[in-house]
Amino acid sequence: MAILTDSSVLSLPLCMILGGLCPNNNKKTMQIHNNTLIAECSTYDFKEMLERKKVKSWLKSVSAFANTDGGSLFYGVNDDRVIVGLNNPQADADFISETIKARLDPVPEVQLIPIEHEGHSLLEVKVKAGTLTPYYYYQDGTRTAYVRVGNESVECNSQQLLSLVLKRTHMTWDSLPTQVDASKHSFIILANTFREQTHQEWNDKYLESFGLITSDGKLTNAGLLFVDNCTVFQSRIFCTRWTGLYKDDAISSVEHRANLVLLLKYGMDFIKNYTMSGWVKMPNYRLNLPDYSDRAIFEGLVNHLIHRDYTVMGGEVHIDIYDDRVELVSPGAMLDGTQIQDRDIFKVPSMRRNPVIADVFTQLDYMEKRGSGLRKMRELTEKLPNFLQGKKNRNIKRKRLLSIPLSII
Known about the structure:
6-stranded mixed sheet
């Protein structure tokens, strides 16, 4: 690592130097107004001065940026984002460089960029998103990895740490082999569903090509989720029909543990049994007035079964039906670490946490690869004959929760 001292860098205004640092949004930059930095994304941290005796306070941010989507620390800016400058940026840069190499393992790719603005000297520590995750902070014989959650750098939990390890090996949880012999299990339900959905004959060689078994006859984690007698503890759905608009008293509640094909069926059956499908007589035909689009519900449930975080052992997919909405909830945050509240849900790129599971559902014609599920759900809901425009903004997704509003009052 070295300080960039190119005069062309030093002469650029701050807003030009920082343009395009925010992942997934090249339009988000940082600008200066009244000597104050105006930030538009969460991949920045601000430090008024370099804390040499409390290096963990800023090294955890370096670890978190490297483990997530990259980012920058700016020295010479206080907590109110007012530029105060540094007395000796060269000495600070040297200390930062040596401390990162001594306290982080592996050493992330970092640029140290000096910036001059109206007589103030700033220092940007630009951290690139790493490929050798997890990046640990090392102190007193302990190693701790951090990730970025919103505007904070937080210590990894066990699930996040596993995800970082898998990222380093370019593997996903569902593709990992197990020690379970495939010969001791059957895939009759999957095979019959394949025939019904595709009108093609099933061949057992598909199990290996789909990634459900390995070449030496062992089940993968995805394979465990599709066998007839699935025993994966977290392969469950909890279905509840609540009275009123909140979780108070329940009319009906049921728990299902099964393979993913059956869980999809059980979930759809529960929703159909506890939602209305009215109709009215028209002059020459009957007009159906369902509360929800079956296909929209189907898209949402498929999404939650495929994209949930199966490393969360104590979590399951929840289906909660209220008087005015259906809520689907699945364990796990956004795959790229962002907050869904900060994103346009119709412009979120398609990223598959469990590509093997997703591919099997694609082969069954249960989903598409284009990442159009949320848009399709909204469009299908808007086509219902009793849809009201005032309801459309209720179709939101937050923290892996999808709420589908009742189409009528």
